Amino acid sequence: MIFNPGDFEDEYAQSLDNLAISLQHSYEHIKEIDKLTGKFDYSSTIANRLRAFYCYQLKLKEFLGKQVAQAGSDFFVETIIFFLKLFNDLEHLDLEIASERPIQRKRNAIRPDISIWRGNELLAVIECKTQLGWLRENWPVHFQEREQKLREVFPNVEIFLVVMTSCNWSGFGNDPRVGKRLFCLLNNVWPTDCVNLHTPIELLFNQVKEITCRELEEEVIWDKAFAKSHDVLAQLAAAALAEDDAGKTLELDPEIL
Length: 257
Fold this sequence. Notes:
- The chain is an alpha/beta fold.
- 49% of the residues lie in helices and 12% in strands.
- It contains five helices and five strands; from the N terminus they run αααβββαββα.
- Strands 1-2-3-4-5 form a five-stranded mixed sheet, covered by helices on one side.
- A hairpin with a 2-residue loop joins strand 2 and strand 3.
- The radius of gyration is 27 Å and the shape is elongated.
- It starts with 10 loop residues before the first helix and ends in a 12-residue tail after the last helix.
- The relative contact order is 0.10.
């Protein structure tokens, strides 16, 4: 009997083919849930998605005899940006959220893990780390240098650091920026052993919302001031025309200027 490869259905290949479709379906399904309930639990869903990814990598490592499992850094960024985009849609923030987008049109420009834009203005940057690794001792210096370079281009940009777990380092300690600019989602546990985030991701998302609202308020203030300046100019122009009609103006003599 001759085996025809076309007769073989590779379930694994089919699963890979359907991943993108499943991701899109998940996105739309969550939007429907939010419409019905008015509130969606981002933190527990992120924890479950991270758990599923790392459990899969662990089983794959055991089955294939791999010494090292696939790194989860890209998946972590994709997970955060997925739910941040969802938050943007559900809260009607009208932001543009990108990953690895250069902040300038030049060679070797900074490409943040996640960047948040309104038009051509960079509002915020989120750097994502699964764990700090070799940065665990000098992360404050690294974070400050990153912040300085970003603000050389966009002076008002806000920078956030999100670390998945504190498994291999002591955490952010008593840094006053914890929960505002610094976030460690899991406290000394790996995603395979956790059912929810110790630090709610909603804290970060609400910071993004506050930045957006503040930006909109500044735009409204500017628009009102600009409109008011138009009114003042119109009044001055009308007064000047009235004086001219009344013969109270003099012809300009360039020789006197």
